[in-house]
Structure formats: structure tokens, C-alpha cells
Amino acid sequence: MKTYDYIIVLKKRNHQTVDTVSQIMLLIAGIALIGDAVNETSKHLSSALFAALVLGWLGFCAWQKKKGSQPFYRLGLFFAALGWYSMPDGFWISLIYLLASILEKQVKFPEEIAFDETEIVLNTFPKKRYGWHQLNNVVLKDGLLTVDFKNDRLIQKELDADTSTNIEQEFNAYAKALLEKTAYVS
């Protein structure tokens, strides 16, 4: 595992859209699984079990949200994927639910930018890596990180927490030194 000199945590994003899509997916799966469980021709007991798991997890997430915690729907989406897989002709839908359960964690992961002597890494999906030689300037000031690229691209992000003036000065000196170092190498 690589160690970085600085890791800057950016302001949390709003996950309301992701949560809403996850809730709708879980409701659809719950209804479909109940329908499969009571259907005269199939009457799958496993569908009733998965419906209970999916709807139970949805209820648990609603309780977490009411308490003020960030709910994670990925386990419910995984149960739904298993439920869809157990249904006839549910293979492709189960893959969609499985993909959603995997991606939810990455989408809700705190956005960070890591800095070391060789590169800058954004923990997006997929990870984005930039060399210092690609940059004009990097500045941390007043809770705002600015990364200026040589190709006229600009990234400006708010930080999650306030930083002291000393930390800002230390980081800016670090970035300036690495920018100057790569300017002579290029």
C-alpha cells in the first residue's frame, strides 16, 4: 500500500439521488419477489425469503436515516440480486442489482485527493492520476483546494474540515517545491 504525503478530504457530496434510486430498486425487487412467491405457477419459498430480506433492509435503512446516520443500501441490493437470480429469467436483472450493490460503496466513499512526490491521485471511480509535470499550480486557501492544469483544466473543491493557516502554508510550500522541481525536469 502506497503512503501519501498529504491526503485532503473534500466536502461530502449529496447522495440523495443515489439513495432514491436504491430505494426504488429495492421496492421494485420486493414487489417482484412477493409476486413470484404468491404466483400460482411458481410459489417459490426462496422468493418470499428474499422479499423479506430486501424489505427488511429497506426498513432498517429508513430507520438509520431517521436517526441521522448515512444509510447504505448495498446489502439490500445484494439480497435483491440473489432474489432475482433465483427467479426464472431473472439472471440479467440480478446482474444489474449486483452491479448497483458494488458501485454504491464507491459512490458514497468520501472524495479525497492524495499528494506525494510523484503524483496526485483522485479517488474517483476509476482512480485518476496526474503527474506534477501536468500542473501549473496547486493552492490550498480558505478551505478551498485549487488544482490548475497546463491544459487549462481547473479543479476547485471545498474541503470537508477547516484547516489552519499553518497547514495551508505548509501544504502550499510542499506543492510549490514539487512544481518547481518538475518544471526543471520537463
- Principal-axis shape equals elongated
> What order do the helices and strands follow?
EHHHHEEEEEEH
Please state roughly what percent of the residues sit in beta strands, choosing from under 5%, 5-15%, 15-25%, 25-35%, 35-45% or over 45%.
15-25%
Largest sheet: 4 strands, antiparallel
Number of domains: 2
The pLDDT mean sits at: 89
Fold and architecture overview:
There is one protein chain. With 186 residues, this protein is of the alpha+beta class. The protein has two domains: 16-108; 111-185, Roll (PH-domain like). The chain has helices at residues 16-38, 45-67, 74-86, 91-108, 165-185; strands at residues 6-9, 112-115, 119-122, 128-131, 135-141, 144-149, 154-158. Helix 1 (16-38) packs antiparallel against helix 2 (45-67) and helix 3 runs antiparallel to helix 4 (91-108). The longest helix has 23 residues, at 16-38.
